[in-house]
Amino acid sequence: MIIGYARVSTKEQNIEKYIDELKRAGCEKIYFEKISGGKSERPEFNKMMETIRENDIVVVSDLTRLSRSMKDLINTMELFKSRGVQLKSLKEAWIDTTTAQGELMFNIFSALAEFERKLIKERTKNGLEVARSRGRVGGRPRVDKNKLEMAIKLYNSGECTLKEIKEITGISKTTLYRYLRSNIL
């Protein structure tokens, strides 16, 4: 089945233009919505994702109607690929995974996304190493055992509010509750 998806961000934009393009492209079913691409919840997009099946072709007028970012586009395309669904963009004709050239372009995009993920991981690792070499350690700061014991005694006595306990000991409510639940000292 050939399925169309159209989205506009504002009420001023004309959704009918996109619907007409998708009809001319032979779409048998069209999902459309007026919602910002920045929103993670897109009800019609989600409905389409629930109904697409292997060998379906999803057609969009242009890629900006389908995704919010390059990362989102690649994730969507990978999801399509895993389900055996093809993608075709009318504006970006080079994105047509029903053709060998379109599949090549998709693989290039996927390789670039993987490269970006590895670069981020590498930079993070290098940054942590530099921080460690300068004496900084990641993670939560260590809790002073004496202050924690005092905070627990004050809490158990019922004489102080949580705000007062924090002012006296510097131990936050969250930290105090975490230690009370775990009974660790």
UniProtKB/TrEMBL annotation:
<dbReference type="InterPro" id="IPR009057">
    <property type="entry name" value="Homeodomain-like_sf"/>
</dbReference>
<keyword id="KW-0229">DNA integration</keyword>
<protein>
    <submittedName>
        <fullName>Resolvase domain protein</fullName>
    </submittedName>
</protein>
<comment type="similarity">
    <text>Belongs to the site-specific recombinase resolvase family.</text>
</comment>
<dbReference type="Pfam" id="PF02796">
    <property type="entry name" value="HTH_7"/>
</dbReference>
<dbReference type="GO" id="GO:0015074">
    <property type="term" value="P:DNA integration"/>
</dbReference>
<dbReference type="GO" id="GO:0000150">
    <property type="term" value="F:DNA strand exchange activity"/>
</dbReference>
<feature type="domain" description="Resolvase/invertase-type recombinase catalytic">
    <location>
        <begin position="1"/>
        <end position="135"/>
    </location>
</feature>
<dbReference type="InterPro" id="IPR006120">
    <property type="entry name" value="Resolvase_HTH_dom"/>
</dbReference>
<dbReference type="InterPro" id="IPR006119">
    <property type="entry name" value="Resolv_N"/>
</dbReference>
<keyword id="KW-0238">DNA-binding</keyword>
<dbReference type="InterPro" id="IPR050639">
    <property type="entry name" value="SSR_resolvase"/>
</dbReference>
<keyword id="KW-0233">DNA recombination</keyword>
<dbReference type="GO" id="GO:0003677">
    <property type="term" value="F:DNA binding"/>
</dbReference>
<dbReference type="Pfam" id="PF00239">
    <property type="entry name" value="Resolvase"/>
</dbReference>
<dbReference type="InterPro" id="IPR036162">
    <property type="entry name" value="Resolvase-like_N_sf"/>
</dbReference>
<dbReference type="InterPro" id="IPR006118">
    <property type="entry name" value="Recombinase_CS"/>
</dbReference>
